[in-house]
Amino acid sequence: MLLTTNNRVKTKNKAKLVILKELTHNSKDLYNKALYTIRQYFFSTKEYLSYIEVYKLLKAKNKGQKTHIPRYLDKDGRYKVIYTKIHLKTMDNGYIRLALSKYIKEKFKINYLYFKIPKYFQNKEIKEIHILPYKPHYKIYVCI
């Protein structure tokens, strides 16, 4: 069973908010591409495409290649980002460190994203972090 807490990100650090916006936007794009790939495969073969097969297809596509997809989610929309325990680290100072993709690292010149976690989670093993976009802020769910 996962125990969770809901934290609203309140920060005056505009750089952190821009990074969160970019992460959730990229997540939305990936969701749309995967959904489009699954639907097209189903319409042509009447079979379901597994997660691993979708991952391989999307990984194999050229990075610069545009995919023409219907707008399942809004063009400027956002989608949740989930960090599993292999992509995060609990720091001794009460912060959690989230790994970033190579694209985000190069674009924003930052290696990690740090967030303060509640005291009652500081000595526990964190299994997942969910970042959900809510205008005009973001919510972070910590799962133990």
Summarize the structure in words.
There is one protein chain. With 144 residues, this protein is of the alpha+beta class. It has one domain (4-143). It has 3 helices and 7 strands. The strands form 2 sheets. Strands 1-7-6-2 form a 4-stranded antiparallel β-sheet, covered by helices on one side. A 3-stranded antiparallel β-sheet has the order 3-4-5, with no helix packed on it. A hairpin with a 2-residue loop joins strand 6 and strand 7 (137-143). Helix 1 (14-45) packs across helix 2. The protein is globular. The termini are close together. The mean pLDDT is 80.
Please outline what is shown here:
The protein has helices spanning 14-45, 51-60, 102-108; strands spanning 4-8, 81-84, 88-90, 95-99, 112-116, 128-134, 137-143. By secondary structure, it is of the alpha+beta class. The longest helix is centred in the first third of the chain and has 32 residues, at 14-45.
